[in-house]
Amino acid sequence: MVYVHGPHAFVVGNPIFTWKARLWVSLCFGLVILLASFVVDRRTKQDFAFWGYLFGMLSFWGGLSLMESGSQLAKFGYCLINVGLMLVSILLQRRVFMVFGALGVFGYLGYLAYDVFKDSMSFPFVLSGLGPVNDLLRGQVSTKQSTGRRSHPRCDTRRGAATATTQASRSLIKPAQGLQEGGYVEENLLASCT
After folding, report:
1. N or C end of the chain, less CB within 10 A?
2. What sign results for the dihedral spanned by CA atoms 151, 153, 156, 158?
3. Cβ-count burial of 116 within 10 angstroms (0-12 exposed, 13-18 middle, 19+ buried)?
4. Which pLDDT band, with edges at 50, 70 and 90, does 122 fall under?
5. Alpha-carbon gap, residue 191 to 187, rounded angstroms
6. Residues contacting residue 2 through CB under 8 Å, at least 6 positions apart
């Protein structure tokens, strides 16, 4: 058998580069993309970091979730990492972390329900106790934007709610001028902010 070395070993398929090593590469690559997206998110006012966060989370969480662990402690660590992702979602105000974190936590709870506590009667009651914790976390995330609609930069809550109100009071446009100057577009935009 011929072993291929160098950068083209990824393309040809090197038997030395095992499945576990590929998962670690995916995990590390995802972390790098997430860190780069965080830097971009903090340096620009526009939302250029969304796609970086999304693909970074796909790579990181995919590599993390596909890793096999035989110990209960490692599986609990996986759950704690996903809870940490949910907390990062609250801190960064990014829903992508909440989605992947919740998927991981529900995967861990499914593992507990089907494998560990298969014949236990108390496990459903313990899960019911976690409901209020979920409600508290959802309340923290939903404070950023109360409506389910996407916000326009003029309606952005980070710049203050007074922005849309101030612009609405300044743009009292007559109907005849609105057709010529595009005032109705402005009024419709402001109406969608409220």
Report:
1. N
2. positive
3. exposed
4. confident
5. 6
6. none
Read off the amino acid at residue 145: Q
Instruction: Identify the residue whose tokens are 């389910």.
Output: 148
Q: What pLDDT, in 10s, does the model give residues 147-161?
A: 544 444 444 454 444
Instruction: Supply 151's token pair.
Output: 């916000």
Out of 72-76, 78-82, 158-162, which region has the weakest mean confidence (pLDDT)? 158-162
How many helices and strands (H and E) does the chain possess? 10, 0
CA contacts within 13 A on the Cβ side of 118: 3
Count of CB atoms situated within 10 Å of the CB of 62: 15
Q: How many CB atoms lie under 10 A from the CB of residue 57?
A: 21
